[in-house]
Every structure is written in C-alpha cells, then in structure tokens.
C-alpha cells in the first residue's frame, strides 16, 4: 500500500486516560503506543503535563483532538493551533488527528463533535481549512470519520464519498474509526461494508475501535465497555484492506483497570491475524 | 454562505432550543427515530456533558446541595456561561459568583484545587539556596511563592466541611464563622491546610514577597517556636520555590 505519508505502523495502542497514569508511569508496562487527547494537555502548565512528559519519554504517542473544529465557519483559532503545534513538538507525537466535524460557531464550543452537511460547499470549505492547518503544522493532519446521529436534508453525497474527496482535495491523512462506521451505519441504515469499500486506504494512518451504547432506536458512541464482535470484524476487514496500520482502543466511560483495558485492546491482534 | 447559516441554526437549537420547529425540514428521519429524536441526541448531550464537567470540579458542592439542586445550579450556569475555550479545564471558574454564602465559599475552595492542579509546582527551594544566604541577611530576604498556591479567606469553615465529607461523616452545613485555608500542590498531590488568623497574616505577607522579618512579625503574640514551626512546614511543603537575598 503506497503513501500513508511515511508514518509508521506503531502496532496496537491504547488511549491514555487519567485513571491509568500511575500504573503506567510507575510500572512501565509493555504497550506499543499511546494516543493522547490533545486538549487535556492544553491551557495547563501543571499536573497533566507532568504525567504526559513521563509517558512520552517512554512510549511513542500520537495526538488526537476534539476541538480543532475543522468544519466550522468560524475562523481557524490560531492560538489553539499554536498550542497544538507546541504540544506536538513537546511530545514528539508521531501525528496529529482530529475529527471531520465542527464543535461550535460564534466563538462558542459545544464540546461535541457536530455533524457536517455533506455538500459541495462544505467540501470546499473544509478542504481549504485542512490545507491551512497542515501548512501551519508542517505535517499531515489525520481526520477521523465521526459517529453521527442526524443527516441533513441538504446533503449531496454520503459521508464516505465526502471523506474520500476531502482527503484527495486537501491531501490529508485519515483516521478510520470502524466503531464510528458501525454506529453511523446503524443510525442511518447503510451497510458498513459499503463505507469500508470507499475508503482510500493509502491515506489511512490509524484505526480506532471502541465500545458503544445501543439504545435500540439508535447507538451512541459512548466509548464504554468492550468492543462488540461485529466491530472487531470490521476492523479486521479494514486493516487487511489497508495492509497493516496502527490500531488503537478508546475507552472513556466506566474505565476498568489498566490490565483489563489493555487486554481489550490486544484482542485486536486476533482480528489482524497476528496471533492464533 | 449556506454552511454558516446551517451551523448557526444547529448550534442555536442545541444550545438554546432555538429554531426547533425547523428540525423536520432540515434533518432526515432515520430507520428507527424521527428527525427530532435524532437531533435530541445532540441537544441532551450538550447540557449533560457540561454538567458532568462541573460535577467533576465540584464534588463536595454537589454533596452539600444535593443532586437535584446541584443540577439546577449547573443548568443555569451552562445557560449563562457557554464555553468559549477548546477544553473544559477552566469552564467552572465562575461557579462561586453564581452562588451565595456557604455554597459560594465552598465553590471557591474547590476551584482553588482545580487551579493548583493546572499550575506548575516545581520542587521547594533547596536547602543549598537557603544555606547560601548570610545569617545577617535573613531578615531582608524575600521568598518566591510557588504558582501552585492559593491562600483563601472564607466566611464559613468550608475546609472542615470538605474534609468531613471526604471522611464520609455526613456533616451538617455549617453556619458562618471566619476561616482561612491554603491550597497547594506538592508533587502530584494537592493539599489543604487550615490556618489560624496569625498563620494567615504571616503566610499572606510571605506570599506577597514581604521581607522575611517583616512578614514574621505579623504573627503578633504567637509564640516564636510556633512561627518557626509554621515556616519550616511551609518551606518543606513547596509553598516557596526560591529565595532572593536583599
């Protein structure tokens, strides 16, 4: 598989969470890599950075953000980008990712990953902003497909087409979250394999898996609990299509101890053909 | 731009329930939920997320007010103070000003804890640095306070209440009584230390950078051996990170 921006396959990693700081720093367990939530280490000069420095000194890390708001019609936040770049340099993060979404307008932040209308106008708008961010960072930005709960009547194309065209137009990387594909497929009634078939895998630098909450009428991407079997199977299929790429488990609610969380991440290896 | 108009509408509906009558026109129905049901995932999540953030910052205030009253306070807070920052580290900083009396004092204490978590806490001033000060100059040295220190005066004994809740003693909400507490971080641990009026006067002077002798004189009638003990404890605890000779 060509391209992938020369970024390495880091193996199977884990989202770094506060409840595991002590265990990780004090005992330095064998973990391929950690993904950090960028904003947790911004606008602070204190304890979060002290933990992060200890982790980044020992493990490869990648940065994953939730407030870039790449799809917003607000101007790009230069102060945010400056801090993001400084954090990347401080941690020697292998790459920086965020979501194909917007988080607010008019200077307000909902702290949610709000859905985009998939229109030609939005495509042009986001592509231009991705290019600007990449120029600022001096590196490719990896954009993640979000979980969504609504679709706009004005949308002109499915998400997978928007994402593929965006990646091409902006020449950016992708973070493929197969749980999000599953969640959105359930919520909107499409076949997740239709989505996977349309992904430009040469741009995928990382994949996410996570648990979710199925309310019957809809699924919420809660990052709670173990990953369900159909999501693992989607991971296996996508990973084979990509020809091998970094994989990461997100677990953000009712987080168990480190051993259990890491063991859940390592289940990925079964679906990647890396262990019997 | 159409995109901007769409986002203005969506954000207004999520944050302020504005334009909810447009949901059916702008959003499609899903396989199992109508458009409004789908949209409400975002609408309910917005408030819940910020209330959860405030509950993380103010666990003792939540205990004191009770779950329902705390939720009401938070909902009003969310309505009054929409977030404008990329993260929620400082989101709850104005809680005390939305409250009165004991609750306001307690919020100030809990916010001080949040603040010192996010301030750098370098190691205490070293014994070598102290030893380098000539004895005759001690009275005129000034100490450099750690940024991870907050000295607070209250109209209620909120630190005692805080500790009692932590100890699962189910304390009653106390009546008014002046109190002082210093909140500081040493290493990765946040500490709260109750202060007598004399201790507060001395510590406030030292944190303000007054010369040592002048600051210690603010102890008034307190026994000198007590003042010496306070000073040693504060130095060892990391409240001060540097010493400047005259």
Structure description:
The complex is a heterodimer of chains A (276) and B (246). With 276 residues, chain A is α/β, with parallel strands linked by helices. Chain A has ten helices and ten strands. In chain A, strands 1-2-3-4-5-6-7-10 form an eight-stranded parallel beta barrel, surrounded by five helices. In chain A, strands 8-9 form a two-stranded antiparallel sheet. The longest helix of chain A has 18 residues, at 120-137. The longest helix of chain B has 23 residues, at 35-57. In chain B, the strands form two sheets. In chain B, strands 2-3-4 form a three-stranded antiparallel β-sheet. A two-stranded antiparallel sheet of chain B has the order 1-5. Chain B contains eleven helices and five strands. Chain B has helices at 2-16, 23-26, 35-57, 59-65, 67-80, 101-117, 127-131, 158-166, 197-207, 212-216, 224-237, and strands at 142-145, 149-154, 179-186, 189-195, 240-244. Chains A and B meet through helix 2 and helix 4 of A and helix 1 and helix 3 of B.
Largest sheet of chain B: 3 strands, antiparallel
What is the CA–CA distance across the termini of chain A?
A: 25 Å
Neighbour order of strands in the largest sheet of chain B: 2-3-4
Could you give the distance between the termini of chain B?
63 Å
As a whole number of angstroms, the C-alpha radius of gyration of chain B is 24 Å
Major beta-sheet overview of chain A: 8 strands, parallel, barrel
Unreliable parts of chain B = none
Q: How many strand elements of chain B?
A: 5
Order of helices and strands of chain B: HHHHHHHEEHEEHHHE
* SSE series of chain A: EHEHEHEHEHEHHEEEHEHH
Q: Which properties best describe this structure?
A:
heterodimer; A: 276 residues; alpha/beta; 8-stranded parallel beta barrel; two-stranded antiparallel ribbon; 10 helices; 10 strands; B: 246 residues; alpha+beta; 3-stranded antiparallel sheet; two-stranded antiparallel sheet; 5 strands
